[in-house]
Amino acid sequence: MSDPRTTPSIFTRGAVDLSALRPAAPAKPAAPSRPATPAADPAAGAPGPVPGVTPETIIDVTEADFQAVLERSLTTPVLLDFWADWCDPCKKLSPVLERLAAEYGGAWILGKVNVDLNPRLAQVFRVQGIPQVTAVIGGQPVEGFSGVLPEAQIRQYIDAVLKAAGVDVATPEDPRLDAADDALMTGDLDAAEAAYRKILAESPADAAAESGLAQVELYRRISGVDPASALAKAAADPDDVAAQRLAADIEVLSGQAPEAYARLVALVKRTSGEEREAVRKHLLSLFIVAGPDDPAVAGARRALASALF
């Protein structure tokens, strides 16, 4: 995802004047609307508290205390969630944002803005529809989004905001992927497939989910197969396409992926037409199992290209 400070923004239509929201008197602390979530441990180097802002990861933001929020954004990115009681989509987005705020452990602050109670804030941030999420980094607003997005896209946006703010934090594990992997490891292939497909429906380029789904298909192909017999059959008939593909599957699951790739590349050279295309697609599916960063895959791709052309 691109850096939100360098992409077209709703704020490029004119400067956002935040000065009108700065009260002459000292700001009052924001009152939490839910149990406090502990912020990152100050002893671990987390920014210290700013006057007027409590050290929670989720706060209510009002016009009266917005100056304190701006000051907090100098050290910790703030994501403003503009919502209202009557807004049904808000009721879907807000719980996701609140859970992620707690999950990131104080790396960013979620500021809840009720637009009915704070119309000037809604006006300043040019809120035309809710829910709307806008980040504030270093006292300045940056590009946000409107409406309800899939959780994967929200995570991408948050990570881009953190990167733009120079916050170095480990990206939390995706619980959806953990659940899918657990199903795969326990042999519940149907549940694993459904979980991986759901992730890919929300994030089509998720390499981990693509790999997981390819592993599901691989396990199904070798279900009930005797490895020794399958390898012996492939050795006895090098031109048996089905036997060679099955042998390659077994080799991949046995930790012999380079041998599997070499087997199928050699088969590509000896076949033509539909058989050759079937072998090529099978080899590509094994590349997906390994993932795009596997060095063995890079070499095998070059060998495949040479065999094809």
What does the model show?
This protein is of the alpha/beta class. It contains twelve helices and five strands. A five-stranded mixed beta sheet has the order 1-3-2-4-5, with helices on both faces. Helix 7 packs across helix 11 and helix 10 packs parallel to helix 12.
Protein topology:
Elements: E1 58-60, H1 66-72, E2 78-83, H2 88-103, E3 109-114, H3 119-124, E4 132-137, E5 140-146, H4 151-164, H5 175-185, H6 189-202, H7 207-221, H8 227-236, H9 241-253, H10 257-270, H11 273-290, H12 295-308
Parallel strand pairs: 1-3, 2-3
Antiparallel strand pairs: 2-4, 4-5
Question: Rough shape?
Answer: elongated
Biggest sheet architecture: 5 strands, mixed
Strand content: 5-15%
| Nearest-integer average pLDDT | 81
Number of helices: 12
